[in-house]
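Recap quiz, item 2
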Amino acid sequence: MDLFDAIKTRRSVRKYLDTPVEDEKLLQILEAVRMAPSWANFQCWKFIVVKERATKEKISELSYVESFFSPLGYKANPAKKALAEAPVVIVACADPSKSGVLWDQHYYMTDLGIACQNLMLAARGLGLGTVFVGVFDEGRLRELLSIPLNIRVVGLFPIGYPVEEKKDGPPRKELEEFVFHEKYKTT
Ligand SMILES: Cc1cc2nc3c(=O)[nH]c(=O)nc-3n(C[C@H](O)[C@H](O)[C@H](O)COP(=O)(O)O)c2cc1C
């Protein structure tokens, strides 16, 4: 698939067929992660591949944070079922000490954001669907997956073959709303 097609047609996919994800495709996705740029090329990421059904179900249970969802009126993360039902869940983690901090900007999040976009576009290019799940109980997830305290969990990615081809995603802002020429505009 052409890169721009992949960028344009990638959607958050939360329903998957039972069809397993081939190991070769998983490897291609992880290779795409591996090639991502990072702060000083430190590659602070750690990725956990989860296939055990019982573990995926527990991860799914941990995809809710009351203080985040209650004010929005959600009773569950929209991706909760996806985490339990996807053939594979990839847990994206970072070691912040292996990335940079400058002017209070913590670049491990940038490193992981780029690596995770590679993951999502590679999945799209291989005919797979995924969604970035950013709301979860990090402490209990750490316990479940034996993740040390110095490692941050950044995102969860259920991956599988999409039940249906989604067409349009939620609307995006027009370019005029966020692209400025020569200088920032506040009005
Ligand atoms: C950092 C981040 C966190 C997200 N967390 C969640 C989440 O917890 N649950 C969920 O269902 N979707 C989550 N999403 C998916 C977004 O809702 C989705 O990308 C956005 O609505 C645009 O839709 P699209 O991906 O189909 O283009 C997250 C996306 C990002 C980038």
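The chain has a mean pLDDT of 96.
Residues 11-12, 77-79, 131-135, 169-170 surround flavin mononucleotide (CB under 6 Å).
End of item.
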